[in-house]
Design brief:
Shape: globular
Largest sheet: 8 strands, parallel, barrel
Mean pLDDT: 96
Strand content: 5-15%
Bound molecules: 3-methyl-2-oxobutanoic acid
Radius of gyration: 17 Å
Low-confidence stretches: none
Order of helices and strands: HEHEHHEHEHEHHEHEEHH
Distance between the termini: 40 Å
Helix content: 25-40%
């Protein structure tokens, strides 16, 4: 069967806000190269993330810590050439935003390479950097909940915000980052109810991964969505290639449709 590519209208941060305001959902996927970017952005994906997960799924490390600014910059160049109109988000990797000057310098590299928004892992302590980036025309996605760059501090890949005090402080810090100018919040590995509370409390769109069904968008790592990453998948992972007769393009389209219809994630793929 030949695959029909449709070039979508270019997505923007304001476009995502409009989707939230309409009460609709959007689908996001990581991308690291030309062909995956072309396929994702032609099959219903609104946001592509050049994530530092590339340290694991591309480079074979056991965490994202070894990833450098140049690694991300290289993959932005590859993804940008294949992008058919998705919003291109890029991670600022470990230790590339430890001060305001450092954040500006490295975010500027990502934007010059073709990113349209940068993602930073952390809470309220990033308010100043967020404000400064936004003042310089660089949109920011804040990444809270499980923040893999802090894996050694967190002590493992586990659900965050189960404790009511920690949950409340996550809500407070998300509001602080929104006030500082963040355009999007990405929430990783939190119980469904906390995902709902944070999404309802914020005006900006919230993208979830392992954060339940109530967030405005969902994201998955490319290799997880296709069942390519070795080992036991996390609870929030669903392999959309398995049993799909339309191949990779069909798997992407099915994932995007499932997110937009609210069918994914279901309870089986969420933390209670
Ligand atoms: O680096 C990445 O791919 C991410 C996703 C897990 C959201 O941050």
């Amino acid at each position: 069967m030949s695959v029909q590519y449709k070039k979508p209208r270019a997505m923007t941060v304001t476009g995502l806000s409009e989707i939230k305001q309409r009460g609709e959902k959007f689908a996001c996927l990581t991308a690291y190269d030309y062909c995956s970017a072309f396929a994702a952005s032609s099959n219903g994906i609104e946001v592509m993330l050049v994530g530092d997960s590339l340290g694991m799924v591309i480079q074979g490390h056991d965490s994202s810590l070894p990833v450098t600014v140049e690694d991300i910059a290289y993959h932005i160049r590859c993804v940008r050439r294949g992008n058919q109109g998705a919003l291109l988000m890029a991670d600022l990797p470990f230790m590339s935003y430890y001060g305001e000057k450092q954040s500006l310098k490295n975010a500027a590299i990502m934007m010059r390479e073709g990113a349209q928004i940068v993602k930073l892992e952390g809470g309220a302590w990033l308010a100043e950097s967020t404000r400064l980036l936004v003042q310089h025309g660089i949109p920011v996605c804040a990444h809270m909940g499980l923040t893999p760059q802090s894996i050694n501090h967190l002590g493992g890949y586990r659900v965050q915000g189960r404790d009511p005090k920690q949950a409340q402080s996550m809500i407070d810090e998300a509001l602080i980052l929104q006030d500082a100018g963040a355009s999007i919040l990405l929430l990783e590995c939190v119980p469904v109810e906390l995902g709902r509370r944070i999404t309802d409390a914020l005006e900006i769109p919230v993208i979830g991964i392992g954060a339940g069904a109530h967030t405005d968008g969902q994201i998955m790592v490319w290799h997880d969505m296709l069942g390519l990453y070795p080992g036991r998948p996390a609870k929030f992972v669903q392999n959309y290639l398995k049993g799909n007769t339309s191949g990779i393009q069909g798997a992407i389209a099915e994932y995007a449709d499932a997110v937009k219809s609210g069918a994914f994630p279901d309870e089986e793929h969420s933390y209670i």
